[in-house]
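Anyone? Bumping this.
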Amino acid sequence: YTAKSGRNTAVIFDEAALARRLEENQLSLALIVAVDRNEFVVHYQPKVNLLTGEPLGFEALVRWRHPNLGLLAPGRFLPLMEGPHLIRGMTRSVASIVGRDLRAWKDAGLVPGPIAINLPEALLVGEDGYEMLAQVIRENGLDWHDFAVEVTEDVFLNRNADHILETVTRFREHGLSVSLDDFGTGFASLVHLRDFPFDELKIDRSFVADIGTDTRSEQIVRAMIDLSRNLGKRCVAEGIETDMQRRFLVNAGCEIGQGYFFAKPQPAEVASERLPKGLVAAEPSMSAAARHI
Ligand code: C2E
Ligand code: MG
Ligand code: MG
Ligand code: MG
């Protein structure tokens, strides 16, 4: 509806926007108790060998089982988490679920490969993230290299970038792999790429989505693959949805990927069905053969 404001101009109230704000406010409130009520759920998406489809590990992706709205994707609620407190609680929740699932997989004789956890800045500036993982590992009798960590380029903008670097270095000293996530969308400069100690570079899916339709994106993808290779990093392509994209990436020299083409993020029970007993998660070699398939 409309309302008269001063000087005879009509202000239009956008009812849809208003409803959205209201819903966001309600979600923000519900988030405050979501941790205590154990409403967070973890789905797993495999990182696969692009040549064979063999799973090399998984990424843990949080979902929120809202009491009325059902399963919500992180895009719906992460932006509503103000302050580091909620995000810390949620991440702790995710890590302990992953710890339990890993234990169960191992007890069943399955070797799932490292499970990558997305660690936000809030957990990297201090000891929190490190202590959190150390505790989960202790409690479940796991090893550091059962886990991997994904950080986004935002960490470089943090005024505590030095502390983040320390945490990351500490993780790596324990043999845990660190990925730079969503590469190409944030603020990583080449200096960061040169100086930041990471193991894996993840090409953001916005570039992968353009393969086959936008030659500029294709050239950027090729350059990113070459760059990671020349820096001695693993390269992982996100968001592969078609076989054409898969083939392009293999030809360009990328050997690992994730995407709906292989598997969507799924609950632990479903994700583990793909794991043969005793499968050893192989470290994919940078084989020359793979580049020419
Ligand atoms: P991300 O870490 O870059 O994760 C990849 C996202 O791409 C996931 O979205 C995944 O479901 C989606 N995806 C994978 N393959 C495909 C594909 O083939 N097509 C399309 N269209 N999408 C694909 P999701 O699960 O909604 O997560 C979104 C973002 O939320 C993640 O991006 C990550 O930044 C954040 N996130 C997820 N879980 C956590 C968590 O436990 N902690 C933190 N701090 N952030 C998380
Ligand atoms: Mg990620
Ligand atoms: Mg990503
Ligand atoms: Mg992404």
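Late reply, but here is one note on the structure posted above: Residues 84-107 form the longest helix (24 residues).
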